[in-house]
Amino acid sequence: MNDIWAGLEAAFWLIVTLDADLLEITLRSLYVSLTALVIASAIALPFGSWLAIRRFRYRRATIAVLNALMGLPPVVVGLVVFLLLSRSGPFGVLGLLFTPTAMIIAQVIIITPLIASITHQAMRELWAEYHDLLISLNTSNWQRVTTLIVDGRRALLTASLAGFGRAIGEVGAIMIVGGNIEHATRVLTTAIALETGKGDFALALGLGFVLIALALMVNFAIHALSRTEREGRW
């Protein structure tokens, strides 16, 4: 219990004093996770919607693989990305290993299946309602996908927020491809792991509370900007 109170106190003073290291780490965490979220959403939302309306031979197998990838171990993703970006790997010439870009790549791979799977589930139900209308209007697949995305935007927002929650809390893959380098690739999760390993549990808890507060603030901000809680919606 004393550690929890010490952690709360540490978090309070880190925020009140606007600790320079905390601000740097927090901004880097936001940059990496939000960039990964935008890229993953740009891929997953259209793909999940398309998968809901399109019928093809291996559709069930594709859905099964997509759902299985939701549980993809982050450390395995980190290892694969590490091997691809290392000097001996095919993309080693780019020099991306141990940079925020490598961390973004790892997070995109981790959260894209999650967002796509949730999107598919939501759009499948919506497609059942719109199916007859859109078919009768002789719309193209792209027009159908666009219609589902626009009308189901609140469900897609939930899918994206789920992806953000997993991205901002990721540590395994980030540690492998980022290296937790001070002033370069250190983010909140890797800083928590570092301080825990050093035995500074109060600071680790403080950083943890800051991470939770950050995730809540981003979620509330997105809901406020999208106006999902106004009368007549949700």
UniProtKB/TrEMBL annotation:
Domain ABC transmembrane type-1 intervals: 26-222
Segments crossing the lipid bilayer: 30-53, 65-85, 91-116, 163-181, 201-225
Localization per record: Cell membrane
Membrane topology: Multi-pass membrane protein
GO CC terms in record: plasma membrane
InterPro entries to which the protein is assigned, alphabetical: ABC_perm_TupB-like (IPR049783), MetI-like (IPR000515), MetI-like_sf (IPR035906)
Keyword presence, Heme: no
GO terms classed as biological process: transmembrane transport
Keyword Membrane listed: yes
Family: Belongs to the binding-protein-dependent transport system permease family.
Name of the protein in its database record: ABC transporter permease subunit
Species whose genome carries this gene: Sulfitobacter sediminilitoris
Lineage: Bacteria, Pseudomonadati, Pseudomonadota, Alphaproteobacteria, Rhodobacterales
